[in-house]
Amino acid sequence: MNRLLSLVVIATVVTALRADARACSPIDPSKHVVDTSMQATDHTPPTLPAIPPPEFHYVDDSSDIGCAPSCSSSSFVGIPAVATDDTTAPGAIGYRLTLDSGTLPPGVVLPITATDPHGDAVLVFIGNEATSLDFTLQVVAIDLAGNESAPQTVRVEHHPDSCSIAGARPSRPGLGWIALVALIVTAYRRRSRPGTC
After folding, report:
1. Does residue 6 sit within a domain?
2. At 118, which CATH number?
3. Distances (CA, A) of 15 to 5, 18, 20, 74, 76
4. Residue 144 DSSP label
5. 124: how many CB neighbours lie within 10 A of its CB?
6. In whole angstroms, what is the distance from residue 49 CA to residue 14 CA?
């Protein structure tokens, strides 16, 4: 009986942790806010080099972003945040994304205003990870004083097949679920043996 109670507790904890970690809601981008006190002294715009190809975040255990594993789950495009500035830290440099060419598929939404990066990328929400993508974005970096870099462009192209996205790992159960299943199977086998409690 104690073993069964332990398994129930473990199952409850693992389920709660996964429900919290994989809540299926898009990450709200942080709006970039200009510090007006810096405008009198900082007149140097940030430097935005050529932007590397974007990364596609598959919303399973291959990414720290998103929802529970599913072919129809939401995903994100990560535009690398590569700008530098003489006074603004990289994580505080904002990015304005606008459509340069192509067409945004249904479910793909660009931030309305300049946003700060999430980690080392600016995120663009995709409504369905199986969506075919082919468009070009114009990117402008903005420092805390409001100075703007020269624009760069980055092409977002991805044509997924079945349940994969940009080479990311396919969906798989997390280690917590694997451990839980192993515990339940072991307990069941022990209880099934004659003479065991």
Report:
1. no
2. 2.60.40
3. 15, 5, 9, 20, 24
4. T
5. 22
6. 43
- Cα 54 from Cα 155, distance rounded (Å): 8
Task: Output the DSSP codes for 101-126.
Answer: EE-PPTT-B--SS-B--BTTEEEEEE
- Long-range residue pairs from 6-10, CB within 8 A, at least 24 positions apart, any chain: 7/180, 7/183, 7/184, 7/187, 10/180, 10/183
Task: Using DSSP, state whether 39 is helix, strand or coil.
Answer: coil
Residues 129-187: tens digit of each pLDDT = 556 889 999 999 999 999 999 999 999 998 766 444 333 333 334 444 444 444 454 55
DSSP alpha helix (H) spans, 22-151 = none
Domain assignment present for 185: no
b/e map of 165-193 (b: 16 or more CB within 10 Å)? bbebeebeebebeeebeeeeeeeeeeeee
In the chain, the number of structural domains is: 1
> In this structure, is residue 15 part of a structural domain?
no
Q: What is the pLDDT of residues 55-83, one digit of tens each?
A: 987 655 444 444 434 444 557 899 999 99
Note if the pTM is more than 0.85.
no
Q: Cα 108 vs. chain centroid, distance in angstroms? A: 14
Strands (E), the chain: 55-57, 75-80, 94-102, 121-126, 133-142, 152-158
**For residue 80, what are the domain limits?**
25-170
